[in-house]
Amino acid sequence: MHWITRERPKIDRLACPWLILRFIDPSATIHFVPEADVLTQAEALGAIPFDVPGVEYTHYEDRCTFDYFLQKHALTDAALHQIAPIVRGADTDDHSLAAQSAGLWAISAGLAFNIEDDQQLLAQGLVLYDALYSWAKHLQSVRHTQSPTEQLLLAVLHRFLEPSGKRRVPVWVGELKEAIQDQIDTNLTLSLTELAESLDVNPAYVSRTFARYFNDLSFGDYIRKLRIEKALHLLDNTAYSLTEIAYLTGFSDQSHFTRIFKKQTGQTPSEYRKKGRKGKTRTKG
Q1: How far apart are CA 88 and CA 103, in angstroms?
Q2: What was the pLDDT predicted at 144?
Q3: Rg (CA), the chain
């Protein structure tokens, strides 16, 4: 059977092929192609696509594609279910899910950096996940630090470092905010899929969880909020015309800018600017 996914795998796209080859379809052929070609190549090859938006084998809510494979194929091996949160934490950049997630991400990123050929990368990924499975199956009770005193000190340290109840914000959230702001400032076309890909985070997962980390706003609403904030700054501090401000803040035209601005602030850009100028005149007097 043929399976196909996006090129340049790191976490889910190595963990899932390992799961396929070791527990589902040992004679499977795994294909890695550019994201835009996955569905067309899947049809041409008669392959099953995975870890891309809009297909059966993908992310669901806070679960990654690896989780779906376990559910779909009713894999009950306890070691696989020990591995699942490690993969999920590494793939979604939520390293609070498992202590091993950060290490898995670091090793996987390093492999992808060192190896350009995806099939060679998969071969190394199989070795990595074989080792992780052996640890989960046989070695979880084995500790490198054997001294009881050292264990006690480590336990105290870990308790001290535990978060105080607030949900830990994934690293990608801050990076995404910076990427969005860069796009706003340079008036480029924004694409959540492209932004997520640039951070190597699954676009479907980012889309589903975006509001959790961005003031309960959808991606579109958040972008409009930033554009209006930039428009307010330009109205207050520059002599640009409304048409120029509409362009600089990424709106299609002045009427679109005026409509969204009024919806967000309760007044048109012209009304806002006039009130601001009157206020400045009174202050000078």
Answers
A1: 13
A2: 61
A3: 25
Q: CB–CB of 25/44 below 8 Å? A: no
Find how far residue 24's CA is from the centre of its chain: 27
Residue with token string 């992780």: 132
> Which residue ranges in the chain fall short of pLDDT 50?
185-186, 188, 284-285
Token digits of residue 210: 């975006």
Instruction: Using alpha carbons, list the distances in angstroms from residue 15 to 18, 83, 96, 107, 276.
Output: 5, 10, 19, 13, 57
What is the distance of C-alpha 148 from the center of its chain? 39
Architecture in CATH for domain 215-284:
Orthogonal Bundle (1.10)
Which phi and psi (to 5°) does residue 4 adopt?
-140, 145
Q: Tell me the per-residue pLDDT of 126-176, one tens digit each, with 9 for 90 and over.
A: 999 999 999 999 887 766 655 555 555 556 555 555 555 556 677 777 767
Instruction: Supply the pLDDT for residue 189.
Output: 58
Q: What are the boundaries of each domain within the chain?
A: 2-143, 215-284
How is residue 68 written in tokens?
A: 């779906």
**What single letter denotes the amino acid at residue 188?**
L
CA distance 179 to 183: 6
Q: Which residues contact 170 (CB under 8 A, 6 or more apart)?
A: 92, 93, 94, 213
Q: Are strands 29-33 and 2-6 parallel, antiparallel or unpaired?
A: parallel
DSSP-assigned states of every residue in the chain? -EEEEESS--SHHHHHHHHIIIII-TT-EEEEE-GGGHHHHHHHHTPEEBSSTTSSBS-BTTB-HHHHHHHHTT---HHHHHHHHHHHHHHHT-TTS-TTHHHHHHHHHHHHHH---HHHHHHHHHHHHHHHHHIIIIITT--S---HHHHHHHHHHHHHHS--SSPPPPHHHHHHHHHHHHHHHHTPPP-HHHHHHHTT--HHHHHHHHHHHTTT--HHHHHHHHHHHHHHHHHHH----HHHHHHHTT-SSHHHHHHHHHHHHSS-HHHHHHHHHHHHHHHH-
